[in-house]
Write a structure and sequence with these properties.
Residues 7-139 form the HTH marR-type domain. It is built from 6 helices and 3 strands; from the N terminus they run ααβααββαα. The chain is mainly α. The protein folds into 2 domains: 3-109, Orthogonal Bundle (Arc Repressor Mutant, subunit A); 122-151. A 3-stranded antiparallel beta sheet has the order 1-3-2. The protein starts with a helix and ends with a helix. 7% of the residues are buried.
């Protein structure tokens, strides 16, 4: 297979995988009455603790206005709250609410169960190959992007 055919095949596979994951996760998120974008934001906050909207935006790769809309919807559900910095009232942090903290175990279990269902029929060897392959792809893309940044 020549380089052009290989590149086209990689792009095609990535698009197909992305669509399959989107469909699977959308179904799961609908059952939990939450969108994938909301879940992504909640996951980042669970991992990092309170954050500014700008930092959240960078982390998820979405615009500040898009993240603000997601935060608004999460705030209406009492999953997150906005907290002003005590030293600089202009700075606003987003943090998880106590209500969400109480209920997040159920959400986590739902996601864990769904991921376990996906991986149920995959051998350890196959899973390792997938992880290794994705790691290689990430490294290649990262190196190329760094090279592009240096050339610009």
């Amino acid at each position: 297979m020549d380089e052009r055919s290989s590149a086209i095949e990689v792009i095609k596979l990535i698009k197909e995988i992305k669509e399959l994951l989107r469909k699977a996760m959308t179904t799961q998120f609908e059952n939990m009455e939450i969108t994938s974008s909301q879940w992504m934001i909640l996951g980042i906050l669970m991992k990092n603790g309170r954050m500014k909207i700008g930092d959240l935006s960078k982390e998820v790769g979405l615009s500040n206005s898009t993240v603000t809309g997601i935060i608004d919807r999460l705030e209406k559900r009492n999953f997150v709250k906005r907290v002003r910095d005590s030293k600089d009232r202009r700075v606003i942090y987003i943090e998880l609410t106590e209500e969400f903290e109480k209920n997040k175990k159920g959400l986590n279990l739902s996601m864990d169960n769904k991921l376990n269902e996906f991986l149920e029929n995959v051998s350890e060897t196959e899973l390792k190959k997938v992880i290794d392959g994705l790691g290689i792809l990430k490294d290649v893309l990262t190196k190329n992007l760094k090279g592009d940044d240096e050339n610009n």
